[in-house]
Amino acid sequence: MSGERSYGYRALFSEPGILVYALAAAFGKLQAGMFALGTLYAVADQRSYSAGAFVVAVSALGGLSTPLRGRLLDRYSYGPVLWTIMALHTVLVGGLLLNEHMRGPFWVTVASGLLGNLVAPPIGVVTRVMWRSVTTEKSRPTALAFDSVLADAGFILGPALAALVCATLAPWAGLAAVLFFTAVAMLLLPKNIGDDKASARQGDRHWAGPLASPRLILLLGAALCFATSVSVLEIALATPHGADDSKVLSGLLVSVLAAGSIVGGLLIGAMTPALAKRATRLPVLLMALAVFSTALAFGNEAGWLVAVPLCLLTGLSFGPSFVAVYGRSGDLAPAGMAAETQAWAGTALQLGSAAGAGAGGVLLDVWGPPGALALAPMAAVIGAASAFAGDRLRTPVAKPLEDAVPESL
């Protein structure tokens, strides 16, 4: 009887090896939060913060290669691929630090930062594939929710940790810590990850990989719109509305959004699998985000007593939405393409964040924070429509053999 009622975090952490895998995911989540700030401080020490910011911006383009790294993981064994690109990543990051120490050409630093991020081990992708292979149907929703919480915590703690080690040790210590935590995460990963996945024959694989699936394309569109909405909210709330507005209050509102996301993810992880499935329906979550962000756009002028609760309610939809995006992308992953599918989901979220930051900045200049906030519900509604269309779309049923047309024609 107790086994039937066991769910949530109790069910997850009762499975063998889960604590070690959770530590691997936690160390891996620090990578994304620390790399940018570690690069900024390493370059700014010898040049300027503007030069460091330029290197960070260029190196961020390396994230666009994540699907390619995911495809390599799907085609070959995870261990050799991860350690090979980790070796390249270490050499390039070390080259950046050495060039800065020797006050070498700036273009070498820029190239090292870009190439270093192009070959960064995709630990986030690997851990999301890992959760699906080391958990049962009963504990999997909790694992995906826990991974979302770790990601939020990593983006909060990572920059703080990078700043701490750079301030107390040396400007290069932030990037050194990134390499250390990434290596630890890789050592803690299960050795047989991906070994039990179904492998599609190379001749059967579409050149577009998982992007050949219309349902996945619609899901990625929803993920992009979701990330756009989140990015716009963060930028608009972080900007004081006028001379009388406090930057501390603006920072508080953004922090409340992040806290709401963590709480939302924790709540999903504590639910039964059936309830978690109902609570992570992406169209419903994005419509809730649209409603709360609309209320926030109108209520943000009413003062912190109104804005703070609205930020918390808005943030509560973030964590479950991340769980929905990554969970659904795993469900839609074609055979032998789990890592690449998860990589595309992460890339869609990154592109959405960049689009939201760019569009939000333009709207801030034209109409101020209220105008920028208006974009958030619009993006959420479009994302909800895309997610709904993907859920309604059905995979065509294969025709009988005598009526079938060869795929090569």
Report the order of strands and helices: HHHHHHHHHHHHHHHHHH
**Class based on secondary structure composition and strand pairing:** mainly alpha
Query: Could you give me the name of the CATH homologous superfamily of the largest domain?
Result: MFS general substrate transporter like domains
Mean pLDDT: 86
CATH class annotation of the largest domain: Mainly Alpha
Organism: Streptomyces filamentosus NRRL 15998
Subcellular location: Cell membrane
GO cellular component, one term: plasma membrane
Keywords: Membrane, Transmembrane, Transmembrane helix
Descriptive account of the structure:
The chain is an all-alpha fold and about 400 residues long. It has 18 helices and no strands. It has 2 domains: about 15-140 and about 150-190, Growth Hormone, Chain: A, CATH 1.20.1250; about 210-390, MFS general substrate transporter like domains (Growth Hormone, Chain: A). The N and C termini lie far apart (about 55 Å). It is globular.
